Q: What sequence folds into this?
């Protein structure tokens, strides 16, 4: 899978750790910044990854900020993105099985690194369950299309 990573300063260390963790695996990882711990605004960083996922340049995105909340809010503004803030493994699994989440957001000031890496691994390897959940995602897309007329 092609996976884009992004963070602000609050998530920088965790983003770097996720990049190192995924480094030896089968995935192609794209680090979209930020590149250090200097304070930066999270919206442009989240938007960059979210637009890349929506355009199909990346299969999935992982965004990290202090809480994961700001990243999730921005990413979900982009049509076609289904971003899920998951600070536990159960939610990470469900966000894939039920919601076909294509972006995972994490709160680096909320959870530790060990848990974050477990969440990432679970999220990346869990498949969408389809069936009744697919019907619900169609409804979600219908709602989205009402507010994003071309
Ligand atoms: C930055 O201080 C912090 O607001 C940001 O990382 C994030 O938690 C926003 O949702």
A:
């Amino acid at each position: 899978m092609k996976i884009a990573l992004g963070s602000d300063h609050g998530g920088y260390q965790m983003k770097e750790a996720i990049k190192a963790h995924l480094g030896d695996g089968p995935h192609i990882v794209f680090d979209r910044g930020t590149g250090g711990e200097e304070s930066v605004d999270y919206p442009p960083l989240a938007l960059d990854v979210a637009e890349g996922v929506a355009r199909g340049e990346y299969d999935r995105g992982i965004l990290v900020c202090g809480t994961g909340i700001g990243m999730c809010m921005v990413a979900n503004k982009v049509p076609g993105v289904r971003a899920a803030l998951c600070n536990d493994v159960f939610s990470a699994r469900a966000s894939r099985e039920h919601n076909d989440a294509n972006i995972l957001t994490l709160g680096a000031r909320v959870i530790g690194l060990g848990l974050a890496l477990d969440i990432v691994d679970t999220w990346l390897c869990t498949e969408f369950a389809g069936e009744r959940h697919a019907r619900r995602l169609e409804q979600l897309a219908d709602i989205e299309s009402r507010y994003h007329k071309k």
